[in-house]
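Hey team,

Filing this mostly as a record. A colleague (T.K.) asked me to run one chain through the structure pipeline before their review meeting, and I want the input and output archived in the tracker in case anyone asks later how it was produced. No errors, nothing strange. Just documentation.

Input sequence:
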Amino acid sequence: MEPTAAEERTKGTNGASGNGGTPSAETFDVLKPTDGSVLETVSVATPEEVAQTVARVRATQPAWEALGVKGRTHWLEQWRDWLLDNRERIADIVQAETGKVRGDSGLESIYLEMAVNFWAKNAGEYLADETPTPGLLPTKVRKLRVRYRPYPVVGIISPWNFPLILSAGDAIPALMAGAAVVIKPSEFTPLELIEVVRGWKEEVGGPDIFDVVNGKGETGSALVDEVDYMHFTGSDRTGRLVMKRAADTLTPVSLELGGKDPAIVLADADVERAANATAYGGFVNTGQVCMSIERIYVEEPVYDEFVERLTDNVKELRQGADGRKYEFEQGAMTSPAQIDIVSDHVEDARSKGARILTGGRRKDQDGDWYEPTVIADADHSMKVMVDETFGPVVGVMKVKSPEEAIEMANDTRYGLSASVFSGDTQRAERVAEQLEVGACNINDALVNYFHLEVPMGGWKDSGIGWRHGAGGIRKYCRTESIVTPRLPTAKSEPLWYPYTPKRRKLMNRLYRLLNARGLKARLGLGKNR
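Output structure:
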């Protein structure tokens, strides 16, 4: 797999990787986004080390599966309690390597705790054997059972914007399903995942079915080659590479590939709530969320009021590094390469006549900082309305009708999620039903992700497959159908050998009676066709 923008940031030395599991001489530095200093130097796992890690957890996986949901819940709940006890320390690590403010960094561990509780409550039901009823008379002599059996080893390649939610958070349902899990985190942000896996191993003493391998594109490729199922979150460009690599081994994949999420504000909306919601939905985590509201379509009668309220909200956002003090709403950006994209989108909009109402430039200081930015009078000739920005920028466009808003919202290759604001929730739902997205929030932003009961995933270039809901754990499983006779069996069956004209004629008549509809058809009185 070719290097990603994330890899270009790392400052490593390329030594010989060694053979037979000899530790790699290659390393990369994890940088602190708030000032560019080095936090820690991490060793790259060689392909041989990746293979050894996967083989080791694979050997332990059958015993893990044999524990059943109740036994696996025991271990995951112990880990949840460790997360609770270490929440502040984990948030410190999150802040240091991502540049998040405290109000955002604390969400990472909280989500993991919530996810353990959700899957502990629901995994038994979602993974329970199914017993379909045979639909045809001749087949009713058999009982049917469908089982969900985990893939032995699940691989996860995770991004840098939510280094725990989008790594360990995706591992929890896989572990609860009975799979072993190996994760390759982003090179930008491996430290917090290393710590929570260490906590599982050393402090919880959990079974050896959960591990992490660090590295760049070669490490990710090696992981795809070794595992039985691959879950990837990141850019659609890299997602395509993962899928191509997985095709070589026929390894199934799920891909969550980001978005260009729209919000629609109808003329009857509560404009103040819409402005408050889009300020949060567009700028939380400094806009580095796959579900960020990046473009807003506002009906003409409320356009000026909405733009004014949104701009006032964004102007009040405080930006800085706050430690544990909860002093700021906006942190640094995690990737300097992403700042280049944000700057390009803003300058493109500026050059094409859009109004930059607040922000619109990098901050002149050490680290990776970009001001929260509102762009008014945007349109689809501008990158900020059609390409994923993934930063603290929203574009606002005036529309004449809900129909135009729907058309513009769907004018994208992405389809992750959306928001619709209206004083009439039924009207908002009718608009939502016409949007080409995997989820839509009515009079709200981002909240669908925290409702683990419903699927979260994208249409179009936003990905393949889903997290959450029953499908979010069953995707880590293979189905096994077991068909058993209900009655004592004879020595032979009518369909078995030998074939004879008499037997075939009898079977044809029987299946005509069973399959035809109407007396004439069943008796064979109609025309032969």
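Quick notes for T.K.: The chain has three domains: 68-257+470-479, 261-451, 491-529. Confidence is low (pLDDT under 50) at residues 1-21.
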